[in-house]
Amino acid sequence: MSTTSRFLVSAAALATLVAAASAQSPLLGISIGFYLPADSEIRDLVGKSFFQFGFSPGVGIQKEKFSIRPELSFLGGSGNGNRFNIIAVPITATMPLGQPGQKSMPYLAAGFGPTYYDYNITRTGPINFRDTGIGTIAHVEAGLVLGESMRLSARYNMLSEKDGFNFNGVQISLSWQFFRL
To answer: DSSP letters of 10-54?
Structure first.
């Protein structure tokens, strides 16, 4: 079994266990947005912003209490002949900041988990760096739950550095819960 397959199977099992162990109603939702690399070298070599996509069985944050949710997020981009892809599987703890019963609820969140990375980037010289493997992600997030099924969030991702490349960045996302499991 390849490293990618082992990572995805392990991530799916971890997400399922956390979702089953949490007190939340089982939900399924998607997240779309964009990713802005913080490092000027990544912006120069690959690009300034990229599409972000993800899903979570816990997109609907519980508005009345602290909650934990697993996530699966895909970050990546290509430009100038270079590319990177990151699959992140963080477990995120969320604390609502409003009053129970509010229609819209601000919240703060933080998370940590494994990542799978795959990149092919050429630095000036030209020196080519190509690698795949496992790393980590940690993030802090602030957002707003809008009604019962939407969430707007801003997150700063801190990813493990590889070959001197810093993939940290800001992620802006809109999440939508589209059905209960």
So the answer is: HHHHHHHHHHHHSSSPPEEEEEEEEEEE--HHHHHHT-S-EEEEE
